[in-house]
Amino acid sequence: MVSARPALARALRWRHAPLVAVLAASAALNTVALAHNGYANTFYAAGAKSMLGSLHNFLFNSFDPGGLITIDKPPLALWVQVASARVFGFSALSLLLPQAIAGVLAVAVLYWAMVTPFGRRAALVGAAALAVFPAFVAVSRDNGPDPLLILLMTVACGAALRAIESGRLRTLLGCAVLVGLAFNTKSLAAYLVVPGIAVAYALCAPGSVMQRLRRLAAGGAVALVVSVVWMTAVDLVPASQRPYVGGSLDNSELGLAFEYNGLGRIEGQGGAHGAIPYRSGAAVLTAPNPTGGTQAPSGPTVATIPDLSGGLTTGQGSWAGAVGPLRLLDSELGRQGGWLVPFALVSLLALALAHLFRWRTGSSDPELPPARRDPRLAGVLVLGGWFLVEALVLSFAGGIVHPYYISALAPGTAAMAGAGAAFFVDQARRQRRLALLGALALFGTVAGQSVLLERDHYLKWLPLLLGACAVAVATALLVPVLRPRVRLALAGRSSTWAVALLLGPLLIAPAAYATTTWLKPVDGTFPAAGPHAPAGPGGLGLEGENPPVFRSLSSYLSSHRTAKRFSVLTVSSVTAAPLILMGQSAAALGGYGGTDPAVNAAQLANLVARREARYVLLGGGYSERGGNQATAAVLKACPQVPTAAWGGPPFGPYSFVLFDCAGHAAALRASSV
């Protein structure tokens, strides 16, 4: 008798072939031409290099080799990059590949999370929608924390659905641990999955109401403990024995997590677009006069000083548009992730109405589980809840919202789009209202995509194709409803091809946008996709006149170094980062934004007196914000190093000026009085 194993193996291979194709496409989008991104976000790259050289720096998430100030984000994503660099050697690719891999894994995990509640067809389409989500691809090609955050949140949702299905406490606690780890990746952003998970478990899990609530309380406690254990440990260490917490005003990791990286980004904290102060204190605004004294510099005014640290912008901004319900479709957030939002929103509405109707009327199908225990309801609450909460936060947050933040909306959007496509195809013949909602989702999404494409003058032929496809698919959905005797391919029993025909054309535009990330280096600070997205310089993140200036400065510091701890101190981490990547022991007096009170005049004086620091470089990126007390003291107390001596740039407002503070500790200390 012929064994059935070969036939079974072939069947399994064919069954999983579409998923393999989706994962291969995701891997290609995330890795093709990845090397031209260089170190991408040099702030994080420099931090990884600093942590690689010291266990103390690793544990405290230090930005600089000397352990002066920390990265202003939790450490988990950086720790993964450091582990990669430890195994494969420190290089740009060893830092970028973990994020690219995390992006592919998130696609696979979303498929796994969707299979049980929505079925294989919906899961496959949802995975494909996530793989081509433009902002998700852009961040997966960067070295920021977002890909790991999204992966952990997606795994947490999948674990929550398994916990709801089985009722096992250990599975729910595993979900809580994942949420806590996500918190240690990007703070409160991780908690946006919690409302959906909590509501779904309280409503759909087995057991009595009190049993479910007790288990939820246990899960919440575990998530909270995992979230704050590292931060609490750091805060308990005396400030003199650890780096200053970058981004905070009180030198506290907990304060950083819940203020600057938390509620402040929703409530409209200082530093957001339109609220950045421009003042002196970290740059030379008067030029040396050959006859003595100083003279006012020529050149642009403070209000038009360019960001000396930024990428090569080509028409797309780094801030979301006006707060409101249409923000996800505006010119910034929309082109990064608004392509399937209308379809996902209508799908969520249709799925919710269907379950509400079933709940009120009871099930007429004895093969279906009770309404409360329906895994599809749990899927809608968990994944749809994530989509809805994330969409509301992005739409109405009054603080810092960069367009790449919409990458966190990708799994929820993809899940609802995939589930909705399968649902509309399966239910169209049975319920007229659902067929009409499916047509509404289709035409609304085509209209939204057409507007986005018209704004960018991109793929001008695509709206006509999308319109024709929408008419054909809507006809296939509606004709059997209006004429029950007529049966078309999309009516009745769902099939993979039918679902693909419904949603497939809507993936063309986001996929095309995603592939534009292959054409130019990513902007490491504000990663984005699209034909008009900002480009980064690649390499060490230097552009314009800066590469020769930094090389000359590095050479000068190497040949004149007398300080034991820091070869140079800068205003902002943006300026220090390329120097660290060049091998210098640089650090930033004011953290990433240049204004953190990390070092005051007396502390800088102590560093100089102990010969731990000598040179200070003022000017450059973010120096227009005014610096801090230490940078102001340098202007008063330390002499300039002649530009010709170290190869600095021609003088201009906020340009680089090097100061030598050796022997001036007393003057620095006196300047703070």
Low-confidence stretches: 272-276, 289-315, 488-494
Mean pLDDT: 87
Strand content: under 5%
Radius of gyration: 28 Å
How much helix is in the residues? 55-70%
C-alpha termini separation = 96 Å
The number of helical segments is 26
The SS-based structural class is: mainly alpha
Main sheet summary: 4 strands, mixed
What is the number of E strands? 6
Strand order of the largest sheet: 4-3-5-6
The outline comes out as: elongated
Features:
two-stranded antiparallel ribbon, 6 strands, mainly alpha, 673 residues, elongated, 4-stranded mixed sheet, 26 helices
Q: Which helices and strands, and how do they pair?
A:
Elements: H1 5-31, H2 42-52, H3 55-60, H4 76-88, H5 92-118, H6 120-131, H7 134-140, H8 146-166, H9 169-186, H10 194-204, H11 209-236, H12 253-267, E1 287-288, E2 294-295, H13 333-337, H14 341-361, H15 375-396, H16 410-427, H17 432-456, H18 462-482, H19 496-503, H20 508-515, H21 546-560, E3 568-570, H22 573-581, E4 586-588, H23 601-609, E5 615-618, H24 629-637, H25 643-646, E6 657-660, H26 665-670
Parallel strand pairs: 3-4, 3-5
Antiparallel strand pairs: 1-2, 5-6
Helix pairs in contact: 1-5, 1-6, 2-4, 2-22, 4-5, 5-6, 5-7, 5-8, 5-15, 5-16, 6-16, 7-20, 8-9, 8-10, 8-15, 9-11, 10-11, 10-15, 14-15, 14-16, 14-17, 15-16, 16-17, 16-19, 17-18, 23-24
